[in-house]
């Protein structure tokens, strides 16, 4: 997996990726019932979101795990930078695959989260591990985002799509089936109703004019960022990093795209653009 490669810059991932709105943390907090002793955040990457969970959900102990030692090193550095701040004092990070929850006693976790990683997992093995780890009525929460678009420049959607999926650009450099699973908003990764109930699943497509009235609030990820920051965001894509290694002497597809954006909208590196993403989340509770 590209993110676990020694060549992958975890700090680029940490700094360039979008963040989740406070309203979403509140929504997850309101869904959860029962104790707030143990929360496990799998596929935690460099730990940004794990620390946000600790801050917003107020669990007694929060564990962040990732299969990449490089990501965990970055998370530990971030944790050390927190010093004695309350958002980090009850957080621990360790190297484990998301499907490996044997390190915690069965029926002791109150919540397991998986943000922007389920498309990489052996989902049934992960689901089984979560079911074993959770207390009765404990919460599983998974979500992801994909395919950015410029809110104010819909005519650039094709250019973004070409960059991501064009056969002569990044299309063949995504790791599949993971990328297709995410593009389809985890549609194929259904939680087992024999193990979980109160299953809530909400998909949001930013350009879908036929978006229904949602019974539950969709996860809206909107970010105002500079053109230079969006360029850094592209630099965090696994496909772009794989493309760079394979095409060291070729014109950079990221540079070509950014120049196209600048020319279309008369933008400069520090010009602000509004970006939004397609999203999905699934919440459920373990059956007794």
From TrEMBL:
Keywords: Methyltransferase, Transferase
Gene Ontology biological-process annotations: cellular response to amino acid starvation; methylation
Methyltransferase domain: residues covered: 40-137
InterPro entries for this protein: Diverse_substrate_MTase, Methyltransf_25, SAM-dependent_MTases_sf
GO MF terms held by the record: trans-aconitate 3-methyltransferase activity
GO terms under cellular component: cytosol
Name of this protein: LALA0S07e06788g1_1
Organism in which the protein naturally occurs: Lachancea lanzarotensis
